[in-house]
Amino acid sequence: MYMDLDVLVDLDTGSSDLYLYNYVDGLLDSARTYPTLNPSNLTINYGIGSVTGNVSLVDMTFAGFSVTNQSFLHVTQSDQTAIIDGKLAAGLLGLGFDTISNIHDLVQSKFPGTTEGRTLLSNIFSSNPPTSRHIAFRLDRLYDNNDTDTGSFDIGTFETGFEAVKNTPEIPIYSVLPGYKIYWSVLVDGISINGKNQTLKSAITNGNIPPDGKLAASLDTGYSYPQVTREIAAAIYEPMDGVFDDAIGYYLVPCKAQTNLTFYIGGHTIPIHPLDLSSVGVASLDGQNVTVCRGYFQPISGKPAGGLVDIILGDAFLRNTYTVYNFGNLTDGTSGLSSQNPYIKLLPLTDPNAASAEFQAARKTQLATLPPEVGDDSPDSRSALSNKSERTAKEVTRIGSMSLAVSILCGITSFIF
């Protein structure tokens, strides 16, 4: 018999699998192997890194809901996984549909039609059904001079004070086609920067190709840094005197620079807080510590979600909305079927006029405790830092990612084993 343990897990709406590792001694001592699944080994690939292990079973409680015999990946090996390498959390919980679950696919391939291998949310919705089959996020923001705001995560309910989201329009999941994997994706109707509407052109060639002038976007809590088209990233940061680092793939920008970035989705106007346009870090230049700022919105590479979306709107976008992910009605105890009409609801949170003043005050406070900003805040000085070494650029990346990961992990919830 084992004592219950409370541990933190990262929450990811862009995937559906649960993986855990021996974050603390004894954490997985009560885990059980699948008696009839042979072999049970599995590798799961993510946008960055991968995990390998055995599909196992464990009893757990999550957000007040108890589940017995929950399938998960007991990790024995990982590659470039910040959560494990930095011991930031005990693992990762995917909050997507069963249709993109590697564990579900493996179990179904061995035992077609079984409900074994379902995601944690599917098990919660099937055996402990809340009033509404949805999850809701409000993400915290670091360095905003508000130390009491910690964000929220709810299953089947809404955070007090944000119930108005119930009256907002349902935004249907866009990339939903028979035979296709399903992601939490929506249509972006427009993007404006400093009042100028940007030209949007989808690169999707299969599945649901967006109408002219629109993009398909995944609302993904697993990405700290939103991934947008190279043209959009340039339009955001180059007017701010940003310098793009080709080797690493992001912009260095003046720490006090801001711009007006607005997304138009599902009838909503969603301004982005200036604090969500850049992150502050410290790097070494010629033996001296300097402060540098990195653009949050990065040019995308590859084909995300198997080529079914154009861009990924991660945490720096999602901090500006109260976001509800509704799975719709479930059929035969499974989630993610296209006939079930899943949808998203958004409640914009950012007042652009107030946000500008908040940015100036918060950034001034933060910079006051750090080394001088690199050079004279000119593009040439930022290019010097960018070209100094790949190691320095990676260090800036690490600093920014760590801050976001801690904010998300500390601000949401935990498992109880």
Please, how many domains? Answer: 2
Helix content: 10-25%
How much strand content do the residues show? 25-35%
Strand tally is: 27
- Would you tell me the structural class of the helices and strands? alpha+beta
The averaged pLDDT comes out at 84
Total of helices? 8
What CATH architecture label of the largest domain applies?
A: Beta Barrel
Tell me the distance between the termini: 12 Å
The major sheet is characterized as:
9 strands, mixed
The poorly predicted ranges are: 335-339, 388-417
CATH topology of the largest domain: Cathepsin D, subunit A, domain 1
Q: Quick one: CATH superfamily of the largest domain?
A: Acid Proteases
Radius of gyration: 21 Å
Query: Regarding CATH, which class of the largest domain?
Result: Mainly Beta
Overall body shape: globular
Tell me what you see in this structure:
- The chain folds into two domains: about 5-125, Cathepsin D, subunit A, domain 1 (Beta Barrel), CATH 2.40.70.10; about 135-405, Cathepsin D, subunit A, domain 1 (Beta Barrel).
- The longest helix is centred in the last third of the chain and has 22 residues, at about 390-410.
- The strands form six sheets. Strands 1, 2, 3, 4, 5, 6, 7, 8 and 27 form a nine-stranded mixed β-sheet that branches. Strands 10-9-25-26-11 form a five-stranded antiparallel β-sheet, with no helix packed on it. A four-stranded antiparallel β-sheet has the order 14-13-19-20, with no helix packed on it.
- The chain has eight helices and 27 strands.
- The N and C termini lie close together (about 10 Å).
- The chain is globular and about 60 Å long.
- By secondary structure, it is an alpha+beta fold.
- The chain has helices at about 80-85, 100-110, 120-125, 230-235, 315-320, 350-365, 380-390, 390-410; strands at about 5-10, 10, 20, 30-35, 40-45, 50-60, 65-80, 90-95, 135-140, 150-155, 170, 185-190, 190-195, 195, 215-220, 225-230, 245, 250-255, 260-265, 270, 280-285, 290-295, 300, 310-315, 320-325, 345-350, 415.
- It is about 20% helix and about 30% strand.
